[in-house]
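tool_call: predict_structure(chain=1)
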Amino acid sequence: MAAFDLTAALTGRAHRWLVTGAAGFIGSHLVEQLLLAGQHVVGLDNFATGRRQNVDAAVAGAGPGAGERLRFVEGDVTSLETCRDVCRDVDFVLHQAALGSVPRSVADPLASHRANVDGFANMLVAARDAKVRRFVFASSSSVYGDDPTLPKQESRTGRVLSPYAATKLVDELYAGVFERTYGLETVGLRYFNVFGPRQDPAGPYAAVIPRWVAALEAGAPCDINGDGSTSRDFCFVLNAVQANLRGALAPGPGVSDSVYNVAVGDKTSLLELYALVRERVASRRPEVRALSPRHQPFRVGDIKDSQADISRARERLGYAPTHTVAQGLDVTLGRPA
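tool_result:
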């Protein structure tokens, strides 16, 4: 596609955006960046995993007066009435609300299905009826399942390995059906291990980077599932924000009714990641350099290696990641950008 100026598209006109999961990690960063760009935002969250302080941080980060352009609704996507309410007069939907975590879905598949499939279908119906211009939604690299091919290309998937992955695959199918049946433009984003500020380090389903940072800051050892050779394409949150905004605003045919990998296009083993995290924490706590990780059994439902081919997102959306893993960790842990 021709060069697409995202900044010009955002600042040229104020639209009305709905961000579901607005009190969550990625959702709150979307709210902040939209408010910074002078946009009007409706935020929805039930606080099952999101936190009110994330919304407060997003508003504060957007500057004085930004909160006047945010309408926040405490509610649940499993309520169709709530979905209809928040979709009213909205131009673009950025649907982030979900129950994340592979282990959580293994422990309670019905809860994941209710939030991730029933809630998703409610949002599609509400967005269709509100005549939303485009519906962008969070999918997951977990849909690649047991296919060993690297890098991962959107057209090739294997057998999914967890209830969570199954819910995200169903979401992609539903989105395509709603575009082809009802004309609702949909864009799916397959996130690859997004990390950054505001990611919750607490609880049994916390993501690896904030969990390790919290452990090292406390002088405790970190757990690695498996021998540490497992690799992921870790993606800083502002890369994911960019992909969402481009997914909503990118012009031209061939953008919607499609899914895109959202990552950097690289892979980092858990042992390599541990070294990067420990090095940064050690700049404040030198004693952690002596800490070695503890190895635990490989988790059920996890995949061994993951790396994204981001060429489709580059070509159709103009997506270009701005932060590597190391740069993202520097921002997350307070080093200069």
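agent: The mean pLDDT is 93. Proceeding to next step.
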